[in-house]
Amino acid sequence: MEVRSKDTLAPPLKHKHQEKLMVKKSQLLLHTSTWTINSTLTGKPRLANFSTGRTRKNLEEESGKVDDHIQAAVEKPGSQKYLLPHPIWSEEELDAVEVTHNPPKERVDKAAYFACKALRANFDFFSGFSWGKRTERKWIYRIIFLETVAGVPGMVAAMSRHLRSLRRMQRDHGWIHTLLEEAENERMHLMTALEIKQPSLFFRLMVLGAKQIITSTSIFVNMFFISYLVSPRFCHRFVGYLEEEAVITYTKLLKDLRADALPKWKDRIAPEISIKYWKLRPDADYIDLFRAIRADEAHHREVNHTLSDIKPDDRNPFGPGE
Ligand SMILES: [Fe+2]
Ligand SMILES: [Fe+2]
């Protein structure tokens, strides 16, 4: 469900049926579910933006009412029940996340490492991240782009193993669920980022024009699929190194947040979708949110390096939600 301020509603109404629809829309403002049909006039679904205008100060002023409101949404029966299991991080686990590096040992590991480093260097340069001031806008567009890519490997690897199991009429040894969980987890990172900022049409056109979403994601899907057929070990190592980079990126973001270098995000309450998904406190801010996302990335790092270390027919050591 979307919650928007009244002054952002549509232009003056022309027809009676539109008026009725707008009444329904104003009723929707009372609800807190994350997704909604945004525009009753256009009928097009749009993402919500529940939390971006709300700060901790707002919550204090509203004397706990909003806490109750969010808590009720978190506890709403059936909410997010359809999602795959995933870790819920404790404070100790969040504190324990560190930037680590798994040194490449064999040739295949070195190839994966250099491919990842080359990708990062190019992306940093062309996205303007290696020069100029890091702003909220730069950060969110970077996160949105990276998470659209990050959701690919788990899904492609899971599909590849699923088809392999069918083709060879052999068991999978429990890998598929972990890979699907990773894919969904990455998609939830993207959904959360979209709650923080809807990319403008200009941004979407820009990335389309720059062949960085549709084209490059499609190319990446196909390249990753073919690479996975040739060498699952290379692919999991490559993702392991990408995740190392993701931990570095989110650590940098947390540093910027703690240094008050991103004033527009100071004391902002995390999007409701993320409060539900990671079971955060109702007044969790962006630091809490990105700590949880960083812990996910550190987990993917461990999972993928482990899957690269073992043979494709070995038992997956990670159980559901682990
Ligand atoms: Fe991610
Ligand atoms: Fe990740």
Give descriptors for this structure.
disordered N terminus; 12 helices; mainly alpha; globular; Ferritin; binds fe (ii) ion; single chain; 322 residues
Structural class, by secondary structure, is mainly alpha
Main beta sheet, described? none
Number of beta strands: 0
CATH T-level fold name of the domain at 91-309: Ferritin
Element string (H = helix, E = strand) = HHHHHHHHHHHH
C-alpha Rg, in Å?
Answer: 21 Å
Poorly predicted runs: 1-52
Bound molecules: fe (ii) ion
CATH superfamily of the domain at 91-309: Alternative oxidase
Q: What characteristic shape results from the CA principal axes?
A: globular
Give a description of the structure.
By secondary structure, the protein is mainly α. The N terminus is likely disordered. The chain has twelve helices and no strands. The protein binds fe (ii) ion (2 copies). One fe (ii) ion (FE2) binds next to helix 10 and helix 12.
Helix/strand layout:
Blueprint: H1 16-28, H2 56-61, H3 65-74, H4 91-96, H5 107-126, H6 136-168, H7 176-196, H8 201-209, H9 214-230, H10 232-258, H11 272-277, H12 286-309
Helix pairs in contact: 5-10, 6-7, 6-9, 9-10, 10-12
Bound molecules: fe (ii) ion (FE2) (2 copies).
The site of one fe (ii) ion has 6 residues, from helix 6 and helix 7.
InterPro entries: AOX, AOX_sf
GO molecular function, one term: metal ion binding
Protein name: Alternative oxidase
